[in-house]
Amino acid sequence: MESGHIDAAAVRGPVDLQIILESGQTFLWRRVESADGTWFRTVAGTEVIEVREETGGLTWRSTTDAAGILRRRLGLDDDLPAIQSAFPDHPVLEAATTRYPGLRVVDAPVVPTIFSFILSAQMRVDRIHENVTALREGFGEPIAWRDTTVHAFPTPSALARAGEAELRDLGLGYRAPYIEATAEMLRDDDVALNEIAASPYEEARAALTQLVGVGPKVADCVLLFAMDFDEPVPLDTWINTAIEEHFPDAAGNSYESTSRAIRDRLGPNPGYAQTYLFTHLRTSGDP
Question: HhH-GPD domain: from which residue to which, for each copy (predicted)?
Fold first, then answer.
């Protein structure tokens, strides 16, 4: 086992590990209580990583040297003060930034993120975590870690082989055929993710919607949280409420027109601003 520490002085701005990993951006981390405290665990490929926040920075332990992976996955190289200072001067964004000054946008692995957000449709955050865990434990590669066994996220080939019936047995409901069909498409490279990542934003969003179970909102989540796009503003219930209550001039007559309008209203980092709005409004329940 390897271990290390990322000093807070080596990161521009604050880091709030819990809100980053439990704000609905990613469902690939699990909070773990152990004899030496609370850790957050993920599997990167086949490497197990655990990290926790301590005074002076982040401490990690892993099957590999995880410092670089954590910097990327947790947005630690983002200049957070500069990003926040570029937000529009608006009371709701000021409240969100004040409440969660260490919220950063994640950079998660793209294939697990696609499947995670297909599972997110009409689902509570805790239930999404349960379904992602079920996929891991049902079809992912087992990895020995300390005194337990954890599982990698299954490959598209493994999910395609599983088939709809076995996926339904995990409790995925109507999402099971979406998972199977998209797994087959990704296994056969019917949708070229590398080409999508290099495309202009709106072209990339349209290309992702070729995947079964991926509409514009899920595509925006994948582009923002896993493909390094700054522009996406996933239009879910909370963001639509924010538009209605705080940015009514951004309400359009289609997903595309509303997306363009709210991006213009949220400044040079609309995806980041959206993440602050979503987290603030969802956790306060008060638009």
Answer: 119-285
Kindly state the DSSP code that residue 198 receives in the 8-state scheme: T
Residue 287 has pLDDT above 60, yes or no: no
Work out the end-to-end distance of the chain between its first and last CA atoms, rounded to an integer number of angstroms. Answer: 45
Give the pTM. 0.95
Cβ neighbours of 69 (radius 10 Å): 19
Rounded CA separation 114/26 (Å):
10
CA–CA separation, 281 vs 287, rounded Å? 6
Amino acid at 93: L
Encoded tokens for 216 = 């514009």
Contact assessment for residue 162 and residue 180, using Cβ atoms and an 8 Å cutoff: yes
| DSSP state, residue 12 | S
Residues 6+ apart with CB under 8 A from 68: none
How many CB atoms are located within 10 Å of the residue 82 CB?
12
Q: Tokens 């639509």 belong to which residue? A: 240
CB atoms under 10 Å from CB of 173, counted, come to 14
pLDDT tens for each residue of 90-138: 999 999 999 999 999 999 999 999 999 999 987 788 889 999 999 999 9
Q: Residue 24's closest CA among 257, 245, 217?
A: 217
Q: What CA–CA distances, in Å, run from 32 to 42, 149, 194?
A: 10, 13, 33
Strands lying side by side in the sheet with 57-62: 2-7, 57-62, 47-54, 37-44, 30-34
Task: Specify the residue for token string 């339904």.
Answer: 168
